Each structure stands twice: as C-alpha cells, then as structure tokens.
What we know:
Order of helices and strands: EHHEHEHEEEEEEEHHHEEHEEH
Strand order of the largest sheet: 2-10-9-8-5-3-4
Largest sheet: 7 strands, mixed
Bound molecules: pyridoxal-5'-phosphate
Structural class: alpha/beta
Number of strands: 14
Helix content: 25-40%
Number of helices: 9
Oligomer: single chain
Radius of gyration: 21 Å
Amino acid sequence: MTISPLAERLFNFSAGPAALPVSVLEQVRDDLLLLPGAGVSVLEISHRSPAFLEILEATKSCLRSLLEIPENYQLFFLQGGSRLQFSMAPMNLYRSADASADYVLTGAWGNKALEEARKVGKTHVVWDAAETSYDRIPGEEDALEFSADAEYVHITSNETIHGVQLPATPPNTEAPVVCDCSSDILSRPMPIDQYGLIYACSQKNAGPAGVTMVIMRDDLLERSGANLPGYLNYREHAEANSLYNTPPTFAIYVMGLVAKWLQDEVGGLANMEARNREKAALVYDVLDESPDFFRGHARPNSRSQMNATFRLPDAECEAEFLKSAAAQGLTDLKGHRSVGGIRASIYNAMPREGVAALCSFMRDFRDRHAG
Ligand SMILES: *Cc1c(COP(=O)(O)O)cnc(C)c1O
C-alpha cells in the first residue's frame, strides 16, 4: 500500500513560484505519460501539432472569458518573465527619441521597471512612496499629476515584496495605462478596457514559471517599430498567435489547467476575489489584534490581498517564528531579502485551511512570546 503524498504536502507560502491547486497537479500527473488525443506526453509534441494548438486555443479562450478580455485586445504568451516586460514595454511603446513615460512607484518592482525604461528613454516619476518605505498606495489626498505627453503611465497592481496593492480600477489618465499584474492577475475581476497593456508572469498566481501573459489593446501594436529585434516586438507575437518561436508549451498547458480550475471549480474571478478577501482578512485580523507584536508593513487601506508583510519584535524572534512555523508544515514565510521580516503569500491556490493553520500558529506563537 502506498501512502498518498498529498497527506504530507506542506502549506507553502512562497511568493513565487508558488502553490498550485492540487487538482491541477493531479491532472498534470495523470496526463503526463499520455495526453488524451496526443498519444504521448505534452512535453514531447510539436508546438504546431493539432494537440498543442488545441491546448493553446483552450487556454486563451478560458483566460479571455475569465478576465472578460474585450475583442479589441490581443492575448499572447511570452518568455523572459515580467523582467523582460520592463524593457519590452518602453522599447515598443516609445514612439520617438524624446518620448517619455510616467511611472507610479509603490514598491520594489515598479522601481525595477523604471530602471529599465530609463535605458530606453526619458521617464517621469509621478508618485513615489520611498519616503515611507513603500507602505502605502496613493490616496485621495495625493493628486497624481500625469504628464500631458506621456507615452503611457506605468503602475504595479500588487507590489509583491512590500505587500501593497492598488485597486483593480486604474487611475484615469489620457495616456494608456501599462500594468505589471504579475502577482495579482486572476485574483479578482478587473476592467481590462481601462488598461492599454497588462503583463503578468505566471509563477505567482497563474501557473508554473516560464510563461508571461500579455494583454494588449490592438491600436498600441502599431507603435512597435520594424527595427526592434524580432523576439522583442509585440506585433510579431500577436500576429504569430504566440507561435513566433517555440513557446513554453508545458507552462502554457499548466496555465490552461489553472484557468479551467478557476472557471469550473472556483466559479470565476468574482468568487475567487471573495475567497481571497476572506483569506487575507483572517491574516490581517491577527495583525490587528496585537499590533505591538505583529507590526504590519502596509497601512490598512493599502494592504495586499496576496502578500501580507509584517515584522515581529526583533530579528531573533522572526528567526524563531520561521523555524517553528516550518516545523508545523508552514513554509516559505521569510520576507524578501530587501525588506526582511515575514511575508505570507496567499495567492489563489492557497486554501483557506492553510491560512487558518497559519493564523492559529501566529496566535499561539504570540501567546508564547509576547512580553
Ligand atoms: C515576480 C514579479 C516580477 C518578476 O517576474 P520574473 O518572472 O521573475 O521576471 C515582476 N513584477 C512583480 C510585481 C512580481 O511579483
């Protein structure tokens, strides 16, 4: 008799690559030797084979329906992660040598995006929360002054490292909004028609590492210059239906299963958002109960539903927290090396039971260690 490995699965709070739904992993396992209809594994077939083309179309159509992507938007899949998008967005969207783009900085990733755009052309920082260590998003009192001639406005919907999240509706601007949605894509509905370009690597909320989805308004494709290197040209990918070169077939297949899980088992993004809100509230309630012991990084109205970041009284206590959590099967809770502390990433696939287990561990730990 074999014991199911599921019985030993840990609750993994990794920020990415992150937990995947168990039913998706089971499906991958079941299909691995013999993908129905293909006769062999999905790992072994041509990206131009009918079996893969079917997977590609099913994945696209499921994502289109979940995210309610309008007809005049392209959806395609790239490699290079979101980091490559930090460069591709300005390389494709700047229309002249003295063009400039606006950047709203709510954390570490926005800064990295800005750094890459600066290599391409002029930039303007509209808002920057560096002074308060990226603990907040712009509020009503922060009138954002966008440049009149910006090629686009760049935002980061969820700052994975600092744990702050913008609302799903982007700021109202003349220029198209470009959004790094890497760590909250598919976690809630969003008005796609209010964005120009959305990009998201898959390994936080949408699948395994290796594929990045790009959602782009048709008219913006005209900006991509003919002299761009082929792979870096959005138009090439849109026209080739994600088959400009060999795409990451396995990652696309798993992402398709995650999308199907969201549609069939979760029942769509509004349901997913409700589940995510509930999970995040469980964690933040523990922080709010004992603000002297658990010091949340983000201000309450800026909190991320995906990554809860907090500190304990001192570094020794944090190390002890991580060690005892791991001993109870609650892993990967260490904050990013740049900010320290604790980070609980509770993406779509983290079940409510995992969050509940974390919360009861936190209360217990606090009761044992609070002075
Ligand atoms: C993880 C992450 C990235 C980087 O993604 P890569 O796939 O490693 O390039 C960029 N932006 C955000 C918001 C992220 O969470």
